[in-house]
Amino acid sequence: MKIKSSTKEYQVNIYDHFDKIHEENIDSKTFVVVDHVLYDLYKERLFAGIVPEQLYLLDATEENKTIETALEICEIMTGIPAKRNAKLVSFGGGIVQDVTGFVANILYRGIHWTFYPTTLLAACDSCIGGKTSLNYKKFKNLLGTFYPPDEVNICTPFFQTLSERDFQSGLGEVVKFNVMFGEIGITNMEQNIDTLLQRNETKLMEFVNSSLLFKKNFIEEDEFDRGVRIHLNFAHTFGHAFETVSGYAIPHGTAVAMGTIVANRISLGRGWLSEEKVLRVEGILWKIIHVDMDEAISDMDRILSAIRKDKKQVGNSLTAVLMKDDMELQIVHDVEREEIEKAVGYVLGKLCD
Ligand SMILES: NC(=O)c1ccc[n+]([C@@H]2O[C@H](COP(=O)([O-])OP(=O)(O)OC[C@H]3O[C@@H](n4cnc5c(N)ncnc54)[C@H](O)[C@@H]3O)[C@@H](O)[C@H]2O)c1
Ligand SMILES: [Zn+2]
What we know:
The protein is α/β, with parallel strands linked by helices and about 350 residues long. The protein has helices at about 20-25, 35-45, 65-75, 95-105, 120-125, 165-180, 185-195, 200-220, 235-245, 250-270, 275-285, 300-310, 335-350, and strands at about 1-5, 10-15, 30-35, 55-60, 85-90, 110-115, 130-135, 140-145, 150-155, 320-325, 330-335. The protein contains 13 helices and eleven strands. Zinc ion binds near residues 173 and 236.
């Protein structure tokens, strides 16, 4: 598939093998950044030919998703015999994407960047849309730019080595897209969630592709997130709060899955969604939500205050994207504290069961 952006049109390829990586032209002008865990897993098979001077191994932690890491890579890249014609190739999940996208954007005012998303979350969602984000001090994703890759190559066999936690987190975004798609998406999810959980390659390719196609419509219409792209924030207003209060112990996609339940419970309370539909969606979601409960996660006041602090919130009233029964997405600005408390309480109660 091709994605249009104002600066470039880029190609997203999905493969059920690694051949593309073997064909990648790592010449002297190319620098490679690889997620450290991924490198250890695939070194012999995929990365053995890359010389140390052209390689940076990134420990994918939120603490390392910083401007310091980005600048360190920029500095090391001055050692290769290329300037604006330098090429960056990176392999990893959202953390590697955020750091290397930023590097590709600022180094020599923008260089060629090929990205291989190796987590399901990065493959089905973040690899398109062009956002780069870095953490600064205690602020998550405070710094950022828009800079799409020149090419995205998804190799689905990578998903086989993901931890259960990271795999299910990726499924959280897949389910979210399908719920947003409406009745057809929900039925499709009901029929395929068990096969997906078994990491069936054919199904993974199909659902990564359909998730990206769905997202493509929004980002092409609203590249810089000023309009319709806000719909993609469905479930995120609440999801981010679960991520934050857990100190990022709950991964992004899992938090989004929890946020989907909160959003739909609020819709249920408003009479906008039938209980039947809400329960159907939850039947899918509870299969992929596995969270270790601790006090920090179950502190209602901290969750409510984190929702208020979400960076998409402007002004006093709480804005969220909610669903209606005909599956129309609705942007609302009047979500009450009581509604959220009830919906969040429901999720926490279920997690404690
Ligand atoms: N820029 C965007 O649009 C955007 C969107 C959503 C999320 N994000 C960011 O993405 C980050 C989360 O990314 P993520 O969930 O993709 O994961 P991640 O980059 O945090 O990686 C998760 C874990 O998986 C490991 N890993 C990666 N690929 C693997 C593989 N194939 N096999 C085994 N292990 C592998 C990593 O080493 C890491 O331990 C967050 O920082 C979030 O803010 C960015
Ligand atoms: Zn997300």
